[in-house]
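Fold this complex.
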Amino acid sequence: MESASGVKFEAELDREFAHWATTVPGGENIRECIQCGACSGACPMSGYMDYTPRRIIALVREGFKEEVLSSRTIWLCASCYACAVECPQGINITDFMYALKERAIKEGRYPKGFPTPIYAQEFAKLVRARGRSTESLLVIRANLRLNPLKLLKFAPLGLKLLLRGRMRPSPRPEQVRDRAGVRAMLAASGGPKARHEHER
Amino acid sequence: MSVREYVYYPGCAAKGTARQYEESLLRAFRELGLELVELEDWNCCGSSLYSGIDKVGALSLAARNLALAEKAHPGKDIVAPCSACYLSFLKAKDYMERYPELRAEVDRALRAIGLEYHGRARVRHPLEVVLTDLGLEEIGRRVKRPLQGLVAAPYYGCQTTRPYSQFDHPFYPESLDQLLRALGAEVVEYPLKTKCCGSSITGMAEWAGLGLVRALLLEAQKCGANAIVTVCPLCQFNLDCYQSKLTGLASPIPVLYFTQVLGLALGLPERELGFARAVVSAEPLLARIGSGG
Ligand code: SF4
Ligand code: SF4
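Structure:
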């Protein structure tokens, strides 16, 4: 991440990455970005990000692949679409963030120990196996990978939800009847699932 | 009164943390002659967490639901109360039109399980259904218990109005304001009505999300609201369940679903609308509503 503020030689930049970015949904017109900052201004999360959305666009265009893919920014994006609606150039930054997340996961570059990518992976596993997610199970599985002690922190809220019938008390998770069908469909969709299923 | 029928897509939250949304939605809609028939064997909508892992898979998940609905309920609209599911479906429909290469991949995935996507079913949010298919006047006529004493901050969150803005403005929506007024509530001017609650990020990275939650709650209170009324399970969860972690609130502020207050105004009993499921109790407020404030 040092190179974002420091010097990077042109030859170290990743042209392939910069080009790839213009071929994914949301990235088609990033070359038209005028760096006005309307996206960063609208973004509720920009104060917590390592690079604001405007800077992400600038870095991507120049080929700062490593910085972008290992940034926390893409995993803090809450998909609120404020940036996308505000952008005077019609750039769908939100959908572009999804493409960046997908690529980061594919390359295993996400910031280690950061919760969101772990949750996303566990969510996807639950859905692939059962067709649906179960909120309580997701929290347990993600935190077993992140830091099991953290589960204690969730316990008081978990109890409140349990008492109010807002959490499934049994370990039997939500699932669809045609689980084999959902699995067959996802396999046929040719997405990247097979690749990172055996990652952990 | 004639009964209108819709395909109901609950989404995972409706079966867990948003139980009271489902309960009140089904109950209030039935009262209004709007029948919601749950989609048989629905699966995950392919929501934002999944989209960040596998775009084609996420679109296929959304499309499976749409295809199932078209097949089992031809000509019927799909009603998706969760903002994230609602957006997932709108986005899938949009992508299937705009990206033929993606569509080919999704079509292939669906064919593998004998389904076909036509894109005929409309996807709708229950707030819009109430306002369009019944209308404010009709709702007004059905009110049995005007919500006097409820001073509401109408909170739309993000994904119901953005980016597709099917029925309201992306940043300055009015539909929920109008509905609440028709129910007899007082509605405050809430400047943060479309600011994000952090969605699922709030639960995963509290250090970032709680800042947003704090701003939303404090602003509502400063505006003079005695309750926040939402249209989204993630908004309700974040504002309700993380409230006790914040300091600076003058008093706890209940976070209600619009379907709960709708049901209340229609004269339905409180116990059928799931009020007791909230972490921040609505009891004191409910005692005031209808008793003249
Ligand atoms: S709002 Fe659009 S044009 Fe402006 S900096 Fe952001 S992406 Fe670039
Ligand atoms: S969609 Fe993401 S990047 Fe855009 S404003 Fe919302 S949180 Fe920020």
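The CA atoms of residues 25 and 259 of chain B lie 5 Å apart.
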